[in-house]
Structures are given as C-alpha cells and as structure tokens.
Amino acid sequence: MSEDAVRWPSFCDLCGEYTTTPEHCSHCGHTLHAVVPPEVPPPGPAHPTTPFAEAAASRRVEHRGLLAELAQWALAEGRRVDLDVAAVCVHALDRQRTEGGIHLDRRQVNWIMWGAVRNEVSPRRALLPDTWIEDLWTVLRFLVATERLTSDSDPEPALLEPLQCYGGLGADGRERPDGVDVDFFCQCHHPHDPTCPPGMVQVSLGRDWDDHFEYVGYAHGIPRSVDIPMSAYEPLAKLARRHRAQPAMFNVALDQFDHLGTVPADREVSKLWLYLFTPARKRGWPPLALDEHGRAWRAKRHRGRRRGFRWTSVDDRSAAHLCGLASWEFDREHREQELLEQWEDDGPLRSVEP
Ligand SMILES: [Zn+2]
Ligand SMILES: [Zn+2]
Ligand SMILES: [Zn+2]
Predict the structure, then answer these.
(1) CB under 8 A, 24+ apart: contacts of 251-260
(2) Do 62 and 100 lie in a common domain?
(3) Residue-range definition of the domain harbouring residue 17
(4) Are residues 242 and 177 in the same domain?
(5) Residue 19 C-alpha to ligand 3 middle, in angstroms?
(6) Which residues of the chain have pLDDT under 70?
(7) Same domain, 305 and 225
(8) Burial of 281 by CB count in 10 Å (0-12 exposed, 13-18 middle, 19+ buried)?
(9) Which pLDDT does position 275 carry in this prediction?
(10) Domain check: are 23 and 57 in the same one?
(11) Which residues lie near ion ligand 1 (Cβ < 5 Å)?
C-alpha cells in the first residue's frame, strides 16, 4: 500500500480504537488497511439528534439508480432491505472502487464495518439501526451477484465472514440466536488466501518489528463454537510448571490463554500448539507457539522462505515476553503501584481513573 493511501486519524480494524498515527495503529501496532479521508475529528460522546433517514438522504439521492436495482434484487431474494442503511453502506463500499469495479477483500469488509460506515453516520449525529449489519450483508451479496466487484476481489463467503465474526450474524445472514457462535476460525485480519491448504487457516504469528512484516502461518484452527478439551492445554501446562519451579519467573495461568489451534510438524519443527494470551489480546501480541514439551518457538524473518519466516526455539523467559504476558504483568504492577501512590497522596476518598 502506498504511503498516501492511508489517511488518518481513523479506526484500527484490529482493536477498533482510534489511532493517532498513520500506517500502524497507535494502540496495537497493527498495520492499517483503512483508506478514509479525515473528514471529521474523532467523534466525541454521541448525542444523536438526526433521524437516520435524514442523515442518509443525500446518499439515497446519490446512489438512487443502484438502490432501485438493489430493492428489486432483494425482493426476488426474499430479503428485506433498509434502503437508508444500504445507501450509506454503498457509499462506504464505493471508496474501494477501482477501474475494474469495487475491489474488496475480507480485511476491508472488516474495516468498513468498524470504521467507514460509522464515519459516514457519526458526523451527522445519527445512529445506525440495530439491524444494519443484515443490510450490509444484502448489499455485499447484491454487489457480488451483479458482478460489481473486481475479479481479484475475495470470494463471497470470505467477504461475509466479518459480518458473522464481529457482526453477530449467522450463515443465513440473519442475527444469530443467543448461545450460538460462528463455526469457522476467524481470519478477518487476512485477505482470502487461495493457496491455503484445505482444512487449514491463516494465523498471524507475529511481526518483524523493523518493517512490520507480518508472519502468517497455516494452522488447524479451532472455531470459537468448539469446546476445547483440557488435553489441548498440556504443552502450556508444562511451560507453566517450569515457570513455577524457577525463581523470578512468570505466573503462566492457563485460563488466561485461548487455544487457537495447531501447526503441523514440518522438516524443521515438530507439531506446535498455539495459545493467545487473552488479557493483552487487543494489543496485537502473537500467540505462544509451544511444542509437545511446552518449549516455545517463534517465527523469525527468513527472506528465502515463501512465507518469509522460519521457526526458531526460545527459552522459557523469552516465551513470556513474546506473547505479551511479561509486559502485561509489568503494566499491572505499575498500575497497582500508581494507585497506591495516588492513594497516599490524595487519600482514599478521591476516585481514581482506571
Ligand atoms: Zn489497533
Ligand atoms: Zn473473523
Ligand atoms: Zn487489518
């Protein structure tokens, strides 16, 4: 992506926070894919005063030809569509227009959900209707069905994934019932990869901090809807025991890690189990990769490799640093110390910002 393609300030599509730096999120370091002009300052507390239809009126006019076609298509599909919401979505999606049509990948849909559509609405002091994601679903399917996307856009199933992972929809494009979760592994931060082996998924394994190159590996990912057996935590339990047994190490608490899946053995490394340290999830730390003995491995830049990295083993202490546990513990101790000092300075009655 060229330097000037990324505008800011804007929302990060990974952590959803406003970032104050270009290119990489000031909160989590994520590479920004967003393309949005800085039309407005970050929205303050919302005091919606404008009815949504009024906020969308100019977009309704601007895209009326396409919206009329959409209404016909939705009717034939048996789907209701709110044309005010559709107008705003179409306008946000139109920012991805190139000569050959609208270019969309899964990451951009994720971004459009978090940033572009809201950026359309919030300066007009309006609120999106609760069911707006269902309308975005209809709009996306309509754009695919009427061949308005470029041929190198991601396939439709991939484009619809963020609406399920983060938008609460089921595979039918309607709100998921309570207690039902998505039955596929989230790859919303990666574009569709046609070379990904069947049954495997792309997983971010960290970055080269010099140039932010992202190590993306293939793994057998476990969907959110699947209950994970305790046996899947055995490698992590081995690491935790070694940390407990040595002085000045870390508290590796199993319930603070999500098991993401496994990386099959290859010529240089045996099978690896991936665990994401959840308290630091938003900060973009990579998952811990452990072999069956609980020894940690990390992806390291190797320009000769097709995927740009190779595996290298690290010691137990480095493992705690790599996954964000060490820095999280440091932050927590620091916060506790600060609270204590503030308490001593100001007395216990004054409330303290978290
Ligand atoms: Zn971020
Ligand atoms: Zn996802
Ligand atoms: Zn992203």
Answers:
(1) 251/329, 252/320, 252/325, 256/325, 257/233, 257/288, 259/222, 259/228, 259/232, 259/233, 260/185, 260/203, 260/219, 260/221, 260/222, 260/287
(2) yes
(3) 1-42
(4) no
(5) 13
(6) 1-23, 27, 32-48, 346-354
(7) yes
(8) middle
(9) 97
(10) no
(11) 12, 14-15, 25, 27-28, 30
Ligand 3: distance of its center to the CA of 13 in Å?
5
67 and 31 in a single domain? The answer is no
**Residue 254 sits in the same domain as residue 153:** no
pLDDT per position as a tens digit, 336-354: 888 888 777 766 555 545 4
Tokens at 67, concatenated: 């919206």
What's residue 36's pLDDT? 43
The reply to whether ipTM tops 0.90 is no
**Same domain membership, residue 71 and residue 12:** no
* Structural domains of the chain, count: 3
C-alpha 14 – ligand 3 centre gap (Å): 5
Asked if residue 335 belongs to a domain, the reply is no
Q: Judge if 175 and 265 occupy the same domain.
A: no
Cα 43 from Cα 341, distance rounded (Å): 33
Q: How far apart are CA 167 and CA 190, in angstroms?
A: 17
Q: What is the amino acid identity at position 107?
A: R
Predicted local distance difference test score (pLDDT) of residue 145: 97
Which of 183, 212, 233 corresponds to the end of one domain? 183
Task: Quote the ligand 2 centre to 66 CA distance (angstroms).
Answer: 28
Task: Please give the pLDDT value at position 43.
Answer: 56
Query: Which of 168, 170, 145 is closest to 156 using CA atoms?
Result: 145
